[in-house]
Write a structure and sequence with these properties.
It contains two helices and six strands; from the N terminus they run H-E-H-E-E-E-E-E. With about 120 residues, it is of the alpha+beta class. Keywords: Metal-binding, Nickel, Zinc.
Length: about 120
């Protein structure tokens, strides 16, 4: 289950941000997870729940996951469409396509408690 190592890496990065901001705790974390990122959302959430039990900065933190769809974009007309649609652009019917989304795993939003 590689989600555990991903959670540890994410939380280590967040701990550095907490120190830099002189924050007392993490309130919430929003993570963007691409359809093709290889991350199992339930396993990631479970790993986070286990992690936060042993790390006081995260004890009350809420994890929110935003699913990012797998997308393609036509190089001819710029149309963006689902990876799972047809092989050609639905607008201009050309085959010049690149993949533009769905592999993300990134912290989108971090809410910290900072007391004066």
């Amino acid at each position: 289950m590689h989600e555990t190592s991903l959670v540890i890496a994410m939380c280590t990065q967040i701990e550095e941000m907490v120190k830099a901001q002189n924050a007392q705790k993490v309130v919430s974390i929003t993570v963007r997870v691409g359809e093709f990122s290889g991350v199992e959302e339930e396993a990631f959430s479970f790993a986070f729940e286990v992690y936060k039990k042993e790390h006081p900065l995260f004890k009350e933190a809420v994890l929110k996951l935003e699913k990012v769809p797998a997308l393609k974009r036509c190089l001819n007309c710029g149309e963006e469409f689902s990876y799972f649609q047809q092989r050609v652009c639905p607008r201009c019917q050309k085959e010049e396509i690149i993949y533009t989304g769905g592999e993300e795993l990134e912290i989108a939003k971090l809410e910290l408690l900072v007391e004066d």
